[in-house]
Amino acid sequence: MYQSYSPYYHYNESRQTEYYHPMLYPAAYDERQFNPLPFLLGGILGPQQGPPSFSPPIGQPGGGEQGGPPTGAPPSFIPTQQAGVFAVDPGGIRRCLFRYTYVWLNNGQQFWFYPIFVGRRSVAGWRWIGFTWVYFGIDLRQIQSFTCV
């Protein structure tokens, strides 16, 4: 059984990923976590109350304001997967920040992704689900390969 290092994180056994879910643990606050809720609801609910949240750079190419999703759909083509990639490291995927990136996972899933944050062992950003962008984060060990355009 996987042991979570924090009671505020949720472990998804089917995908072998761990993530912080603000709706499951609304009282928890970790300044290292990106909270998309203020960006999505900021205009509706007014100014944010409580501690400040992470704010990605503004005005990056192709993206919305303050780390929001891209303003349009990803490219309509699927790039060919390159063979010979053995491990994905933060330095490699960092060059894809704020760029449309196609990702192949170890479990066979593949999708368009728009990364806005790269950590030591994870990457976070916006994942295209066919009709809209959803905020998404994943452990780098789950990524088989990627290519950015």
Describe how the helices and strands are arranged:
Blueprint: E1 9-12, E2 17-20, H1 37-45, H2 90-94, E3 101-105, E4 110-118, E5 122-128, E6 133-139, E7 143-148
Antiparallel strand pairs: 1-2, 3-4, 3-7, 4-5, 5-6
How do the strands of the widest beta sheet line up side by side?
6-5-4-3-7
Main sheet: strands, sense, barrel: 5 strands, antiparallel
Count the DSSP helices: 2
Class of secondary structure makeup: mainly beta
Radius of gyration: 16 Å
The N- to C-terminal Cα distance equals 39 Å
Q: Strand fraction band?
A: 25-35%
- The residue-averaged pLDDT reads 75
Approximate helicity band: under 10%
Total count of strands: 7
- Given the C-alpha coordinates, what overall shape results? globular
Poorly predicted regions are 1-6, 24-32, 50-62
Q: How would you spell out the order of helices and strands? A: EEHHEEEEE
